[in-house]
Structure formats: C-alpha cells, structure tokens
Design goal:
Layout (H helix, E strand, L loop, with lengths): L17 H14 L13 E4 L2 E4 L5 H13 L3 E5 L5 H9 L4 E6 L2 H10 L4 H4 L2 E3 L13 E7 L7 H14 E8 L6 H7 L6 E7 L2 E6 L3
C-alpha cells in the first residue's frame, strides 16, 4: 500500500481566488489532451457486460472511478467537492439511471462548470454550496456511492479527516476517493474508529474503494 510523503498543516490554495487558477488548469489539460492532458467529457463510449469502452482520451483516474461505479452499480452517487461537475455529467452520461448529486465549497466553481461543461438543470438542482469539512445535516441525504477526487489532498489534515468522516456518514454502502500522497488516508480511517466497519480495496496508488461491512 502507498505511503504518504507529507502532512499539510494548511490548505494548499487560497480558495477565494481558486476558480481562476482552476480554469487555467482545465485549459491546459484540454490543450494537451493528445499528449499528457485529458479531455473532460465522455463523448464516445460503449457500456458492455465486460465494462466501459472509451473512444476519447480521458484521464486514467477518471476511468478508474467510473469503472468502480460500474462494478458497484449504485442507484445514487454523491460527489464531495464536485467543482466543475464534469464527473457528475460523465456519470449521468454513462449510467443514465443513476441519480447524481454533489456539493462544492465555492459558488464560483459551480458557475464556472455550469458554463464550461454545459451542465443542465437536471444536475444543477442537486448540487449545493457548502464547506464539507464542517458537520453535515440530513439535508444531503444518504447515497449508495460517495466519492471525492483530488480534494482531501489539497486541504489540511485537520480538515481532511473531518471531510473523510462526512463521506462515511453520507454513504449507504460505498466510499471511494482518488487523492495524492499528502495524507495517510487509511490511518485517517483508523483514527475515526471506522476500520472495522469497512472493507478496503486499493484501486491504484492513493485510490481506494471502501465497502461497508454488513452488520
């Protein structure tokens, strides 16, 4: 299993101006999609009994997450830190019957994603603005598959463990996350006293799928 290389004390970004930096990152990934970059939206694909076949260039991390959703077959998916919402749109494209929803810290991220990726009202109506490292209430509901992608890696350890706890709280069955090496996520699970409640599978480096154990 992968080992962390750092434990951030402070958040990596100034969230007040993050959307501007994020938009530049998106442009760069699209510009280099034929090389080390990535397209953002699924535009050509087949979903078969064996899995998902993609015919456009998507980042491996995204394909790993979508494959986990394919394998778990949830009725509902919630993204914690949904940012530009392209993952929610891709999941809805690949699996039309899955209900998708999410939240993000910044309204500017949601506004950017809605315009950049042409996010429809069917998704936007299920996306809220909130700090997911703060306690969550019942208004977010419960979901079969709760995930994050490259969120905890950018926040302090203190915020990260609270964020992780909220993911576990919202999940009926599965929690997945694809992150960087900044934290020891499995130790976080232990620190939360949750190790005995979840089966843990490493999807790839710093990428995990947790399945809630039957009581």
């Amino acid at each position: 299993m992968s080992k962390p290389v750092a434990h951030p004390v402070n958040d990596e970004y100034n969230w007040k101006v993050y959307t501007q930096e994020y938009s530049h990152q998106v442009d760069e990934m699209e510009r280099t999609a034929g090389d080390q970059g990535s397209e953002f939206l699924v535009t050509s694909w087949n979903v078969t009994d064996e899995g998902i076949e993609y015919h456009n260039k998507l980042h491996l991390n995204w394909r790993v997450m979508y494959s986990a959703i394919y394998d778990c077959k949830p009725a509902s998916v919630f993204e914690c830190g949904c940012g530009g919402m392209y993952h929610l749109k891709n999941i809805k494209t690949l699996f039309p019957d899955i209900k998708v929803s999410g939240c993000d810290l910044l309204q500017t991220q949601i506004d950017f994603g809605a315009k950049k990726f042409d996010i429809g009202e069917d998704i936007l109506k299920n996306v809220s603005v909130r700090d997911f490292s703060e306690p969550v209430d019942d208004s977010l509901g419960k979901h079969d598959f709760v995930y994050s992608h490259a969120v905890m890696m950018h926040v302090s350890k203190e915020k990260g463990i609270k964020f992780f706890a909220n993911m576990l709280k919202l999940s009926n069955k599965y929690v997945a996350f694809i992150e960087g090496p900044q934290h020891d996520y499995i130790k976080m699970l232990d620190d939360l006293g949750e190790t005995d409640n979840w089966d843990v599978k490493e999807l790839r480096t710093n990428s995990w799928l947790l399945t809630k154990k039957d009581k």
